[in-house]
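Can anyone check this?
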Amino acid sequence: MTMDEEEHVRDVYAHYGLAMYWSQCVEQSMFIHLMFLEFLPRNVKNFSDSARWASDFDSYEAIELGKTMGRLLQKLKSEGQPTEEVSVLLASALKKRNWLAHSYFSSRAVDFMHESGRSDMIEELREATEFFREAAAKLDAITMPIARRYGFTEDMEAKVRSDMFEEYQAKK
């Protein structure tokens, strides 16, 4: 394999990784949506102790994030969310994510062996990435107004991101 071919193969893998990353962002968006639609409404009224709250949330998070994307979608539907448009979008995201995760490379094995096929794969993966970005953004657009009603301001959101980054840096 020439250096150009190796680089092209790496590009396919990089685009695949980015598409899978964004599919996981959709899953996280689904979890966050559930948190504001299920966990908070059921638990805010009983809040009395920060340690217990953290423990209850950690348990909820572990259970929900242990579920498959399909189970999260079922739970969203059972909670009365999302809208039909978003439900259809998330069902498509689930189907696309499962295809990427379970059969993408086997279904593209012949394409992967030649330059034009890899170029087609890269374009297909770019489209998948954009699809997942849009799906996450649409769900977040529904979730954030709900989060704001619970007092989760833009400043708080920025602080959470900053704290997460600091925690990440400290682990390095």
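Reply from J.R.: I decoded it. Residues 3-43 form the longest helix (41 residues).
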